[in-house]
Amino acid sequence: MGRSRLIFLSRFLAIAVSFVQSSSTQVCAQNITLDGSLGTTGTLTGTNYTIPQSVGQTVGNNLFHSFGKFNLNSNEAAIFQSNPNIENVLSRVTGGNQSFIDGLIRTNSGVNLFLINPSGIIFGQNARLDVGGSFIASTANSLKFDDQSEFSTINPQQMSLLSIQVPIGLQYGKNQPAEITLQGQTDSELRVASGSSLIFAGGKIDINQFKLFAPGGRIELVGLASEGAVDVKVNGTDVSLSLPDKIARADVSLNNAELNTTADGGGDIKIDARNLDSLKSFISSQTNGIGDGGNILLQSTGSISFREGGVASVTRGEGNSGNISLKANGSISFGASSISTSSTSGLGDAGNISLKANDSISFVDGGGIYSDIAYGWGVGGGISLEAGNSILITKEVTFDSEAISERGDAGNISFKAGDLIVVSDRSAIYTTSGGKGDAGKISVQAPYFSLLNGSALVSTTSAEGKGGDIEINVPNAVNISGLYPIPVYPDDTLLAYSSIRSNASSGATTKAGDIRITTKTLQLSDAAVVNAGTSGSAMGGNINFDTQTIKIMGGAKLLTSTFGFDRGNAGTITVNASEKIDILGSDPNFFEQKQQRISYLSSFDEQISPASGLFSNATPDSNGNGGTIHLNTPVLLLAYGAQVVTSTVGSGKAGDIYLGSPDKPINQITISGTNTGLFASTQASAITLPLKFTTVDEVGDAGQLPSTAQTIPIVPGIFVEKISGSLDSTNDVDLYQIELQGNQTFSASTTFLSQVSDTRLFLFDSNGFGVYANDDTSILLQSSLPSKNPLTPKNPGTYYLAVSQYPVTAVSNGGEIFSFLTPTEIRGTTVKGGSLPLSGWDGNGVEQNTYTILLSGLNAVPQILSGGEGGNITVHADSLTVKDSAQLTASTGGSAKAGNIQVNVNSLNISGGGRLLSNSSSNGQAGNITINAANNMNLSEPGSGLYANTTLGSIGNGGNIFIDPRILSIQDGAKIAVDSQGQGNGGSIEIAAGTLTLNNGSITAETRSSKGGNITLNLQELLLLRNHSKISTTAGNNQFGGDGGNININSRFIVAVPSEDSDITAKAFNGKGGNVTITRRNQGIFGIAARSQESPTTSDITASSENGAQGQVSIEPPDIDPSQGLIELPTNIVDVSQQIVQGCAPRRGQTASRFVSTGRGGIPENPYEPLRKRAVINNWITLPNNENQHTREIKEEITTKPTSKTIVEAQGWIVNPRGEVELVAQVSQSPGGNFNNYSQQSTFSCN
Fold first, then answer.
1. Rg, C-alpha atoms of the chain
2. Is the pLDDT of residue 25 over 50?
3. Among 77-81, 245-249, 441-445, 1164-1168, which is the least confidently predicted range?
4. What CA–CA distance (Å, rounded) separates 488 from 769?
C-alpha cells in the first residue's frame, strides 16, 4: 500500500469518527423507550431520564426493565430507581438497534445493573457510571436463571415467566454476537463502587482511550464469536463470568486504555478473547493495605500482543501481590512492555507470573518481567514462560526476580520451549538476593538455546542468602556468543559480551549458585563469559558442563574467581564431553579490528581479552582459595592462545587442574600455539587491606565546576564509603573531586537514604569531559554509576563526581553533555555537547533536601602481600601432544611454593617450542614435574622440553623432574632442565627408561651461583648421545660460585660418536666440581671417555672446576665373573658333514644347490632352531700358529665337561617380519600361513 493511500485512509477514518461523534444527538432522537413487554410502553423524556421501579417488574430482589431503545447523549443521565430490597436491575434492549451511551448511568447503592442489547453497545467519550454495585454490559440474547427461565431480548416474556432467582448465565444465539465499543478520550473513564465488578461480554470488545476502574473488585472483558451460554456467578455486588471452552472467542482490543482494580486489597482482572491486542495500555491490580492484590488472567484462543504497555499486580502494604497468568493457543508477544508483581514495602509476597503459549512467546524492544521484593519479609514470586514453539527475548529486555528484603527469598525464573529459546541484544535475566533470603533459580529447557549479543543470565547474592542456581537442560545445542555495541560518545562505543553469571558479591556469607549446562553441542565465542565467582566470605559457585562436544573460542571464558578481603573460596569448573573439547583462542586480528573500530575514550572498560579458556583465579585482595578445574573427554584440543588457568595473587591457594582421571583417561590431548596451555601460578600482589571506613560531609557549598569542587582527601588506610550533603536550591549541584585507583572497582549510588527522592549522578574526568551519567527511576536506586556493574578505571587518577536534582543536567559550550533516553542505563554523551568539557548546568530541580551517596573503591591504599600456594596440574591421557610454543606451567612469583605437574600417559610428544614448565621468580620454590609414560616420550626442536627452573633475581630452589617412559628421545635442541638462575639451588632430574636418546638434546641441572642439581639416569638398555648433546650439572660462572651437581648413570650401554662433541659434565667455576658415577650394570661405553677437560672435538665425561676442587668421574667395571658359564669347545670347530644332509642329484636341466659354511655367526646353534633375535654375523679371523697349544691350555682351564648336543639338519627357510631369511628345522604346515613369510619350498627331498 502506497503512502498516499495510507494518508487517505487515515484521514477518512478521522472524518468518519468525527461524523459519528457529531451525529450522536441525531441518532439518539428517541433516547430511551419502553417496549411494553413488561406492561409499560412509551418514551421517557427529560435530560435526566428517571426510570422508576414501577415501569418495570419486580420479582423478589430482582427488578426487570425492557427497553425498545436505550441511548444517552453527553449531557444526559439514566437514573434507575429502586426500593432498598432490590439487589439486581436486569434491563434488556429489544428494539434491534445498538445502544449509544455518552452520558451517565446511575443506580442506588448496592444494586447491580445488567444491560443487555444483542445489537451492540457503544460507550462514548463522556460516558460515566454511578452504580451502587456491579455493572454488566452484554450483547447476549438473554439472561438465564437456575429455574430454566430466561429474560430474553429476542422473545420477550410475560411477567409470570420472570424469575426470583439471581441470573446464572448469559445466552448467546447462533448469530455472531454484536460488538461492545468504548470510544473515549484522554480523561474518559468508567468506574464502579469499591468491591464491585465491571464486566463487558459481547462479540468483539474494542476499548479506545478509556480507563476502567473497579477498586478492590473485578474487571472482566469477554469476547465471544459463537452460540453458547456463559455462566454468571453473583455474590452480592461481586459478579463474575465463566466460559466453557467450546464457545468460540472474539477479539479484544485495547488502545490507550487502562484497566485498574487498585485498592487496599486489589481486585481481579480477567480477559477472555480470541486475539488480545493491547497498544499503550496498562492492566493493574495494586494493593495498598492488608488485603492481597488481585489476580490477573489473560486468556486467548489466538494470540496476545502488548505494545508499549504493561500488566502489574503490585503490593505496597502487608498484603500479597496477586498472580499474573497469560495463556494463548497461539503466540504471546510483548514489545516495549512489562509485567510486574513486585512488593515494594511491608510483609507482602510478590505474586507469580506465568506465560503459556502453544506457539511462541516474545519480548522485544525493552521492558520485561519483574517480581521483586524491596523491603520487609516478603517472598518473591516466580516467573515462568512455557511455549510450544519458541521463546524470544531481545533488544534490551530485562527479567528480574529480586529479594533485597529482610528475609524474603527471590522467586525462580524458568523457561521451557518446544523448539528454541533465544535471549539476545543485551537482554538480561536476573535473580538476586540482598537480604537473608535466597536468590531464585534460573532454568532453561528447550531443544536449542542461544544467548546472544551481550545478553546475560545472572544470579547474585550479596548478604546471608544463598545464590540461585542456573540450570540449562538443552538436548541439542547451546550457543553463547555475540557482542553488543553501547554508544557512549558520538564516536565511541563500548562492547557488552554475552554471559552467564552466578556471583556472591561483597557481604555475602553463604554460597553463590551453581551453573549447570547439559546439552549435546555447546559453543561459546565472541568473548562470552560463564562466571561463578565470589567477592565475600561466601563460597563461589561451581560450573558443570555435560555435553558431547564443546567449543570455547574467540576470547570466551569459564571463570570461577575469588576476590575481596573475605575468605570465600572459588568454585570448581567441571567439563565432561563424551566426544570432544575444543578450546581455541581468538584471531588476534579480530580484537585489533574491534579496538580500531571502537575508540575507548571512556575511562572505564571491561577489557576484551583474546584468550579463550577456563580460569579459576584468586585475585588481588583475596584471602580465599582458587577453584579446581576438571576436564574429561576422549579428545582435547587447546590451540591459538587457549588457556586453562588456576592462579592466586592473594593469600589463598590456587586451584588444581585435572585433565582426565585414573579410571577414565583422555585418549588424545593436543596443546598447540603461542600463549596456549595449562597455567597454575601464584604471585605476590599489591592489595588493599580494609582498615577504616569514613563518611565525608559537604562543607559549605561543594561547588558546581572543577575549579570550585570540594576535594575528598586521600588518607592512607581510610576508605570513603559515603558522601552526605544537601541540595538547597532548585538548580543546586554539588561537585566533588575524587581519586580513583587503577586496582580498584568504583561505584556510586544515591538510594532511599536520601531525602531528595529523585537525583542524578554525573562523572567527569580530570579535564571536565563527561564519562558517565545515570538517572535510575527505581525507589531503591535513584541513580547509580556505573549502573549495576562496578568497573575498574582504565586511567587511574583525578575525577569529578556530581549530584543534582532531577531534571538538572550538565552542559558544555556546545550544549547538553549527556543524553537520558531510558531509565537505569549508563548514559553516553550526546553529539552536540559531549565533545567539550563541563561549563555549567541547566534546568530547575523539583525538590530540595539532603542526599547520601554510597561509594565503593574510593581512596584505596595498596600494600604488598605474598601470594598463596600454586595449584597442581594433573593429566591422565593415552596421548599428549604439546607443540608450537604451548605450555603446561606451574609457577610462583611469591614466597609460596609453585604447584606440581604430573602427566600419566602412554605417549608424550613435545615439539615446536612446547614445554612443561615449573618456575620460580621469587622466594617460592618451583614445583616438581612427574612424567609416567608407559611407552614413548619424544621431545624435539629448540625451546621444547621440561623445565623446573628459577629466574634471575629469585631466591627459591628449582623443582625436580621425574620421568619414567619406555623410550625417551630428546632431539633437535629440546631440553630437560632444572636450572637455577637465582640464588636457590637447582633441582634434581631422575629418569627411569628402557632407552634414552639425545640427538642435539640436553639434560641439565645447572645453576648461576648456587649448587647444581643432581641427575640420575636408570636405563635398562641404552644411553645414546649424538650431535652435541649434553648432560650437565654445571654450577656458577665467572662471577659466582656453587658446587657442581652429581650425575649418576646406570645403563647397560653408553654410546656416543667421538667427533660429535656430546658431553657428560659436572663442572663448577669457583666451587667444587660434581661427581659423575657410571654404575656396575654398565657393559660397555663407546665413543665417549672420561677426561680432565672438555674438548670441542671429542665427546667427554668431565667433573672439573675452574678454580675449585675437581670432582670425580667414577666408571665401575662390568659385574661379570669370567670363571662362570664357560664350556669346553671341540677341536674341530665346524664339521660340515654333521651340519646338513647330503645334497640331491639335480634334475634334468637344473643346477645342484649347495651350502657353504663361511664362518661364525649367521646360523642357529641347531638347524632345527631359528636365528636368534638381532643375530650378529661375525667375520672370520686368522688363528695364530700355536693353535694346538692354545687349545690344550683351554682344556686345562676347563673344570666341567659340556654335554654333547645333537645337530639336526635344516628342513626349510622363512622370511621373518624384518624381511630377513632364516633357516629352520621345521616349517609350519598351517593352511592359513602367510605366503609372504613362508616359502612354498618347505622341505627338501630326493625323488
1. 46
2. no
3. 1164-1168
4. 12
What is the C-alpha to C-alpha distance for residues 1179 and 1186, in angstroms, rounded to an integer? Answer: 21
DSSP state of 1165: S
**CA–CA distance, 614 with 611 (Å, rounded to integer):** 10
End-to-end CA distance of the chain: 108
- Judged against a pLDDT cut of 90, whether residue 191 lies above it is answered with yes
C-alpha cell at 11: 484521514
**Spatial CA neighbour of 214 closest among 297, 310, 283:** 283
Of the candidates 830, 764, 777, 850, the residue with the CA atom closest to the CA atom of residue 807:
777
Which residues pair with residue 1049 across a beta bridge? 1017, 1078
What would the DSSP string read from start to end of 245-301?
A: TTSPB--EEEES-EEE--BSS--EEEEEESSEEEES-EEEEEE-SSSPPPPEEEEES
Residue type, 1110: Q
CA 92 – CA 109 distance, rounded (Å): 21
Are β-strands 296-300 and 324-328 bridged in parallel, bridged antiparallel, or unpaired?
Answer: parallel
Closest alpha carbon to 922 in 960, 951, 901: 951
Q: Where are the beta strands (DSSP E) in 651-730?
A: 657-659, 666-672, 677-683, 685-687, 692-697, 710-711, 718-727
| Apex 303 CA angle, 300 and 309, nearest 5 | 95
User: Mind listing the pLDDT tens digit for each residue in 404-429?
Assistant: 766 668 889 999 999 999 999 999 99
Q: Is 1176 exposed, middle or buried (0-12, 13-18, 19+ CB in 10 A)?
A: exposed
Residue 226 grid coordinates: 459463537
Q: Where are the alpha helices (DSSP H) in 897-1032?
A: none
In the prediction, which pLDDT does 16 show? Answer: 39
Query: Is the pLDDT at 1225 greater than 80, yes or no?
Result: no
- Residue entry with cell 614435574: 929
Residue 352: phi, psi to the nearest 5? Answer: -85, 150
Backbone angles phi, psi at 1013, to 5 degrees: -80, 175
Confirm if 486 and 529 have CB atoms less than 8 A apart: no
Residues 197 and 235 sit within 8 Å (Cβ to Cβ): no
By CB neighbour count within 10 A (0-12 exposed, 13-18 middle, 19+ buried), where does 306 fall?
buried
What is d(CA 24, CA 101) in angstroms, rounded to the nearest whole number? 9
Report which of 678, 642, 683 is spatially closest to residue 887, judged by C-alpha positions.
678
Three-state SS at 604: strand
The sign of the CA dihedral 145, 148, 153, 157 is negative
Give the 3-state secondary structure of residue 1198: coil
Residue located via cell numbers 503459556: 356
**Residue recorded with cell 560450573:** 543
Cβ burial of 1230 (10 Å; 0-12, 13-18, 19+) is exposed
C-alpha cell at 976: 630437560
Q: Which residue, chain included where needed, has cell 530540595?
A: 848
State yes or no: pLDDT of 1129 exceeds 70.
no
